[in-house]
Every structure is written in C-alpha cells, then in structure tokens.
User: Fold DNA-directed DNA polymerase from Vibrio ruber.
Amino acid sequence: MPQANSVVVLDFETTGLSPNLGDRAIEIGAVKLVDGEVVDSFQQLMNPGFRVSSFIESYTGITNHMLRTAPSCDEVMASFSEFITGENLIAHNASFDKRFLDAELERINRGYSGEFACSLLVARRLIQDAPSHKLGALVRYKNIDNDGVFHRALADAQMTAKLWLQMVEDLEQSGIVKPSFQLMQAIGKTAKGKVNLLLAKSRA
Assistant:
C-alpha cells in the first residue's frame, strides 16, 4: 500500500480562480518525496498566452515581463506530466490545484494515474486548534522552518511538503505505524468529530 511519505507535493500559481472561466496556470512548483526525503523538485514559469492582471502580479510577484520569455503552458505541462507519472499527489486546497492540473493536461491529451489528497482538509482534522488552516498560518503554528516566501509555487510546495510530513510524523508518534496515503485521504474526508475513532481503528 502506498506510504503517505512517498508522494509529489505540488502548487500552481494561476491567472485567477477557475479554468472554466479561461484562467490558466502561470507557474508550477513541486517536490517529490520518497520515504519522507525530498529527492527531486520541479519549478517552471509558463506563459498563458495573455497578460496577467496587476492584482495577480502583486499577489504572486510574477510579472508579465517574467512571463514574456517563459515557455508555453503546453510545453511545461508535458514535462510535468512525466514528473508525476505513477505518483500520488498532495496540494494545500487540492480541489483548486487539481482543477488546473486536469484542465492543463486535458489541453495536451495527457493524464495521470495517481490520486490526490488535500493537506488543508487533513490539517483541519489533525490540527483542529490552529487559528487558521491557511498554509502560512499552519507553518507558523507548527513552528515549521520557512523563509517567509509564500504565493510562489515552489516555496509553497516545499512548505506544504514540510507540513504534510509533520502531520505524518504526528500520526506515527500517536502509534500509527507508517501511515498510508489512503489513510490520509480518509482523514481528509472524515467528519472532525469522528477522526479520533478512525485513528483508533488504524492503531488496532
């Protein structure tokens, strides 16, 4: 059974909130974890084929000038589809990143075989007393090393990976030996009040 600590953690920066409204990816960042160690990373700006808004420029720090010389989304996503072959995937607020991953890969007739788990949903169940479940707030709450850079894809993927591994480690320390990827998915889908029951069964 796939282990929770061998995954690809990814993050997109985009021109807006929905590919259905014509929004495109402008940066992908990802780290590959094997047995809890970062073994590879992927980071690339991509040109969506139109100018991004000044809001997105200031929010992400990614400017139209930077994107002008970046390769196309199609080119970058073709490389990225190879990077994630056979891997399960993690993102913070995964429904957002999955929408963009699916939309961008569909444009180039590529797919992927792995499944998604959402570190945001898992954190809401396992770190219920955090003041907020935004990535930056969780990183601060759990005292995770960071360089203060957020809303750039690779930095966010690296932070999400550290948060994910911290949650896996917390489960191990609570008596769950080598948590599986499927257990993490199940935690994310379980009602907050029933999580302890699920974890107790996993220790049995």
